[in-house]
Amino acid sequence: MNKIPLQNFDPEVAGAIRHELARQESGLEMIPSENFVSLAVLEALGSVTTNKYSEGYPGNRYYGGCEYIDIIEQLAIDRAKQLFGAEHVNVQPLSGAPANIAVYLGLMEPGDTILGMDLSHGGHLTHGHPVTYMAKIFNFIRYKTDAEGKIDLDHLRQMALEHRPKVILVGYSAYSRDIDYAAVKQIAEEVGAITIADIAHIAGIIAAGHMNNPVPLFDVVLTTTHKTLRGPRGGMIMCREKFAKILDKAVFPGFQGGPHENVIAAKAVAFKEALQPDFKTYAKQILLNAKTLERKFREYGYRIMFGGTDNHLLLVDVTPQGLTGKEAQLAFDKAGITLNKNMIPDDPRSPMNPSGIRFGTPALTTRGMKEPEMELIAGMMNEVVEHRADDAYLLGVKERVGELTRRFPLYPELAR
Ligand code: DSN
């Protein structure tokens, strides 16, 4: 076995990791699906549990030597149940897209109809976008938000009555409002559809009790664990007991092989963190910070989609300012502010050069930033848009970004 430390054995990889650490520490991370995990989560993620094969589930594995792996996976399951009030939990999905696929394959037959949100209205690729393989297997019908950016429940009901879907899917990746799960459940019951919620973006906020929780109402709830939940990169499925067997089988052996137990160990640690009282404070601050950005962007005269935000993110149309989402993203990169270009509802532009930008507060909030910093950041963002063609100006903003982030150290304990 190689015993040489990473830095000595592979300085190229070690160097790139060090630079990535510096990039994360010195910039403003505003991609709403990103966050910073704790050292305890990192430690579990980098543990020897990565060496172990463990196909099957706790107490029922295909391999020997799983006694400690079983403890870890059961802890993750029990903590997730406690966090969300779930009847059954599967922590093995490798990430959000594999979790979605396993659920589709477990619940539906090829050709079955599923009603999901249009990508440009805040939905997700895996919710039936034509570029995905799932769209070739299942009949996705896409609903949209109304002119004010709200989910039009009457329209959703009409579509459900017309198409009689096997599944109704809610939960989005660029939508900034809360969801009336009870109303969607009522529509699903009327047409006999299974309800699925994909809460990947807002799981941490739901776990903290600051947004509506679909778990007690819906048949199946999917999430990633690395966004507002602040765990390792991974996925999770929660469901009613009656779907437990079929979905466990869909994950393994239906779709995946051996689970990544180091990631599951890190999920267990993150769930323990999310069960602590200070996680509620953290999640509340995410929302307060997003509201502060909303207020400032409104003052600056930006076109905020969906009429504002109830969660951690904002979707803003920048074309009235005379630039595209792609141009804005590039200018923000130059200023040390990381966010992403994004389609707006019924965007006339293309996904690679759309009209909007999407940004959010989970990672900044993890650093300890609050309302005063959000005001500063909104001001700098507005300057970036106004001076996007002036590289020297953007460099000046980057220096101010550096001054701000130095006041909120991220991983001072890590070697550099
Ligand atoms: N890529 C994630 C996001 O940014 O929303 C979702 O898969």
TrEMBL record:
Organism from which the protein derives? Candidatus Magasanikbacteria bacterium GW2011_GWA2_56_11
Q: Where does (6S)-5,6,7,8-tetrahydrofolate bind?
A: L119, G123, H124, L125, E241
Q: Which family does this protein fall into?
A: Belongs to the SHMT family.
Alphabetically sorted, this entry's keywords are:
Amino-acid biosynthesis, Cytoplasm, Methyltransferase, One-carbon metabolism, Pyridoxal phosphate, Transferase
Please tell me where this protein is predominantly located: cytoplasm
Picking any one GO biological process from the record gives: glycine biosynthetic process from serine
What cellular component terms from Gene Ontology apply here?
A: cytosol
- The annotated site for Plays an important role in substrate specificity falls at H226
Pathway entry? One-carbon metabolism; tetrahydrofolate interconversion; Amino-acid biosynthesis; glycine biosynthesis; glycine from L-serine: step 1/1
Serine hydroxymethyltransferase-like domain residues? 6-380
Top-level EC class: transferase
Catalyzes what? (6R)-5,10-methylene-5,6,7,8-tetrahydrofolate + glycine + H2O = (6S)-5,6,7,8-tetrahydrofolate + L-serine
The protein's name = Serine hydroxymethyltransferase
* Assigned EC number: 2.1.2.1
**Cofactor needs:** pyridoxal 5'-phosphate
Q: Which residues carry this modification: N6-(pyridoxal phosphate)lysine?
A: K227
In terms of NCBIfam families, this protein maps to: PRK00011.1 (NF000586)
Under Pfam families, the record lists: SHMT
Q: Where in the cell is it found?
A: Cytoplasm
One of the record's GO molecular function terms: glycine hydroxymethyltransferase activity
Subunit relationships: Homodimer.
